């Protein structure tokens, strides 16, 4: 369908829009995105058409064009919507909670479960495939997905820095590093063709390792326990004197008198012929 015919259908649908106005009904928008998700997952981006999406969503093509100009615009909106929902669901923290390791461990498990879902993997593959031709879609995916998660985690880490529990110079970099440690070990095999979900034991090992590495790098050493933020027993008293150095025991100097190496007198043999 040409852009002119799509615009004509959109104008016809606008006249039928209700109190919300053209393209402003949030329920209708969710209905369209739900149908689009079904079609894109089933047929892929290239094979999907606006007609297919309209039928799956139960709306007319005219109504579809009121909300979205074209298939690319619709896919970008779907990606942004799903990424935003995921970020809002996963990255929820209690800044007052003292146990950083537990918070990061819980996030790591939830994060891995989200990024290995078949729907997410399919979306990620599609974004990677079309980002060269439609860079705006790639940008929206990155901003609504990875960037949003990093920003939310950064706020939690910044609060822990203020409380003296963590020692981080760049919280956004630290947040990106932690999420990378969690996902890189499990998503790469799936992206390149493995359809098997990660083994739960392996996922747990990845998360626990990520938390250990993160706390080793950013735990506030000497300022508080990285688990609970307390300082009891962490810092040594400044008044304590260091232990006196232990001197080496006196060693008896060995006898260095040069031994007598003179050869013994040897009797001269009798060389006369017998």
Helical content band: 55-70%
User: How many strands, what sense, and barrel or not for the largest sheet?
Assistant: none
CATH homologous superfamily assignment of the largest domain:
Tetracycline Repressor, domain 2
Global Rg = 35 Å
Distance between the termini: 134 Å
Q: How many separate domains make up the residues? A: 2
> Spans of 5+ residues with little confidence (pLDDT < 50)?
8-21, 223-269
User: If you consult CATH, what is the topology of the largest domain?
Assistant: Tetracycline Repressor, domain 2
Number of helices: 10
Total number of strands:
0
Shape descriptor = elongated
List the helices and strands and how they pair.
Layout: H1 3-16, H2 26-47, H3 50-57, H4 61-67, H5 71-90, H6 100-115, H7 118-130, H8 135-162, H9 171-191, H10 200-218
Tell me what you see in this structure:
Pfam families: TetR_C_7, TetR_N. Residues 26-86 form the HTH tetR-type domain. This protein is mainly alpha-helical and 274 residues long. The chain folds into 2 domains: 3-69, Homeodomain-like (Arc Repressor Mutant, subunit A, Orthogonal Bundle), CATH 1.10.10.60; 80-218, Orthogonal Bundle (Tetracycline Repressor, domain 2), CATH 1.10.357. 61% of the residues lie in helices and 0% in strands. The relative contact order is 0.09.
Can you give me a brief rundown of this structure?
It comes from Xanthobacter tagetidis. Residues 49-68 bind DNA. It contains ten helices and no strands.
């Amino acid at each position: 369908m040409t852009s002119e015919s799509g615009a004509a259908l959109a104008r016809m649908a606008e006249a039928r829009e209700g109190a919300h106005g053209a393209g402003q009904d949030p329920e209708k928008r969710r209905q369209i995105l739900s149908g689009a998700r079904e079609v894109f997952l089933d047929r892929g981006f290239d094979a999907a058409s606006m007609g297919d999406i309209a039928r799956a969503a139960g709306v007319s093509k005219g109504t579809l064009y009121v909300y979205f100009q074209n298939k690319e615009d619709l896919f970008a909106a779907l990606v942004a919507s799903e990424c935003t929902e995921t970020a809002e669901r996963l990255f929820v923290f209690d800044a007052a909670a003292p146990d950083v390791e537990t918070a990061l461990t819980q996030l790591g498990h939830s994060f891995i479960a989200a990024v290995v879902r078949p729907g997410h993997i399919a979306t990620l593959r599609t974004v990677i495939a079309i980002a060269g031709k439609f860079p705006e879609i790639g940008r929206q995916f990155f901003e609504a997905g990875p960037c949003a998660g990093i920003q939310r985690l950064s706020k939690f880490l910044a609060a822990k820095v203020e409380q003296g529990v963590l020692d981080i110079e760049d919280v956004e970099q630290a947040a990106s590093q932690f999420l990378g440690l969690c996902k890189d070990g499990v998503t790469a095999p799936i992206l390149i063709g493995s359809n098997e979900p990660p083994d739960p034991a392996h996922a747990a090992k990845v998360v626990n390792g990520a938390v250990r590495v993160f706390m080793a790098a950013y735990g506030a050493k000497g300022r508080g326990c990285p688990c609970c933020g307390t300082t009891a027993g962490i810092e040594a008293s400044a008044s304590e004197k260091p232990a006196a150095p232990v001197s080496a025991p006196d060693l008896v100097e060995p006898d260095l008198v040069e031994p007598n190496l003179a050869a013994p007198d040897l009797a001269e043999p009798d060389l006369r012929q017998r």
